[in-house]
Amino acid sequence: MTLLLSVSGSFLVLAVLAKLAQRLGARRQGQMLASLSAFIAHDASPSFTTDAEGEIGYQNRAATDRFGARGGQTLARALGELFANPGSVLARLQSKAVALGAAREDVVTRRGHMRIAVHRIDGGGFLWRLEDMAERAVGGRGGETLSLPMLTVSKTGTILFMNEALRRLVGERMRTLDRIFTDLPIRSGEEQEITTTEGPMRCMVAQIEGAGGRDEIYLMPVAPGRPGTHDPASFESLPVALMRLAIDGRAVDVNRAARGLLGQIAPGTRLCDLFEGLGRPVEDWVADAVAGRTERRPEVLRARRGDREVFLQVTLARVIEEGRTGLIAVLSDATQLKTLEGQFVQSQKMQAIGQLAGGVAHDFNNLLTAISGHCDLLMLRHDKGDPDYTDLDQISQNANRAASLVGQLLAFSRKQTLKPRVIDLRDTLSDLTHLLNRLVGEKVVLTLIHDDNLSTIRADKRQLEQVIMNLVVNARDAMPGGGEIRIETENLRLIEDLKRDRAAVPKGDYVVVKVTDEGTGIPPDKLGKIFEPFFTTKKPGEGTGLGLSTAYGIVKQTGGYIFCDSVLGSGTAFTLFLPAHDRPAEVETDAPAGPALELPAVEESAPSRVLLVEDEAPVRAFASRALKLRGYTVFEAENAEEALRILDDESLVFDVFVTDVIMPGMDGPTWVAEALKRRPDTAVVFVSGYAEDVFREGRPPMPKSVFLPKPFSLSELTATVQNQISRHGKRKAGAMSAGHASASGGSAPDSSQARLS
């Protein structure tokens, strides 16, 4: 009995303690809520406290003024008048507040933008604060301050905002456009009927596309009983460019925004005098708009303004004013869009011309290789005293001139093989001065001005010299009466991207080269075409039109930029931006001259073996004969697949592979990589009309390989092959197999012949 009394007493004590703790907790929470209520009571933004289930416990004065007394209701119900489905937004924010202590989110309501913030408070409650955000400024003023009725609408037709002028007109806040407009869709620039508190009303409508899929719609009411009458003050201040036109296309009225785009326009000015670039008579376009055939299709036109280039998107719409048919032109600035379009078109055009030039040059190099190669073979059989030798020498020289022209095409298409190294431009230009002085003649003074601390650059010295010579020759030709050509160099650091002439030079350190003349200048309408191939301002027969396009290609392939500034009658300046390097200039070492063309006796014991792979039959025939005359045993293949079939015979060991890079089917680097898995010690000579991406920065794609560009001469081919064999060693004599043959049926230099299956 005593034990039971003791246990009962203990439970009683615990119950009393729990009750006291509950009262203390409730008192502390009540004190905290009282302090919080006092803190937010005079906040200008509506604020609420809720429990975990969202039921409102307290709301400040601002919340009561806007939403009324909401005690005992949920916050989601109170906010249902502002935007659709507030429950999901509140639940998402409350979950974040539970995890992080606070959260906030911006939402679009029927009154505009609102920021909802929530903070977790002790005891499991939440403090909510609603902050109105200003609407996007329109014409320098907020939408609420605009006396003209306007609204903001989403792409789906939901009304996001209505200003006070429109709310007074229609009587209440509307959610969708069909509650206001009796005839949808919206037709910008036309009169449409709207529903108001006093009945139907006609309004002039202007729609402006905004950011984020939000369009602004402005309404200019027409006085009752006078359809088509407009308010001149409202038309003038409307923040969208509008023109009123007669049915013959003459301007009747132009508002302030349109004058900002077009400049001052006299009444009665014809539309064809304001715009150009339609592609058909403007009068026909106006007639179609009056007849309703254009269906408000916009046209991008160029405004006839002398001070600057402006492109406008123009939409014509038919309207009825004072019982007469007229037109409304809605104008939008499309200059930036047109500039981007021009950049894209120019890029596509230059890329297409570059691909064409590269392809043509590649094919011509194959032809020139065969022509000059067989000419070399003929010259071997004629002494210099032979009458035919002079003719053959002329063929060879003209083939070399053609090869130089093809090299210019490759430079423009940026597919030539460069040999870049770090150079000092001061030394390069000093070495070039003697030749430049001979080029410009006695009437022209050549002046060089260098930065004393000029940085080095990484470029192909010979190609860069070609660029400078092209620019100097053009400057000389622009000054038939003489003058001064200045070549200036300086260091330049760009702290931000330099944008000009549809190009952007990235920020960084550059070496700038400027070539300036005092010549006739370049007309503005031709300035944008000077870097296009075959375009020239010279008379027929005086230029090929490849000089500047070659310079453009070389500079771009070097990683630089070239720009032109010209004033007609005053002169022209070409400016090159070349990336600067902080490394010292490399010492140039002259490449060893190739051996003189001699025909040594064929090695009877172990002549070196060459696998020649070339898809062009004339080139393959010349190369095979040249190598055989040098004493090599040559196996021929017209494609990579045939070459790999030859290598299936393991008894055949080769000292060097000579292969074209670009061939139908498998290309040169691909089949060589496969062949070297089985024959890793074989040297390789790649030949091509131009170097593809497999030769990055002019380096061969694999070890023990060199690149020989086409067109090549007999001595260049044989010297390159001999150098590869000498550098990488001859195959072991024991690995040789008997018999000399050609895969295409050709014979080796000795009398024995064997055909491969």
Give a description of the structure.
There is one protein chain. Helix 9 crosses helix 15, helix 11 packs parallel to helix 12 and helix 15 packs across helix 18. The strands form 6 sheets. Strands 17, 18, 19, 20, 23, 24 and 25 form a 7-stranded mixed beta sheet that branches. The chain has a 6-stranded antiparallel beta sheet with strand order 12-11-16-15-14-13. It has 757 residues and is of the alpha+beta class. The C terminus is likely disordered. Helix content is 35%, strand content 25%. It catalyses: ATP + protein L-histidine = ADP + protein N-phospho-L-histidine. This is histidine kinase. Its EC number is 2.7.13.3. Keywords: ATP-binding, Nucleotide-binding, Phosphoprotein. One of its GO terms (molecular function) is ATP binding.
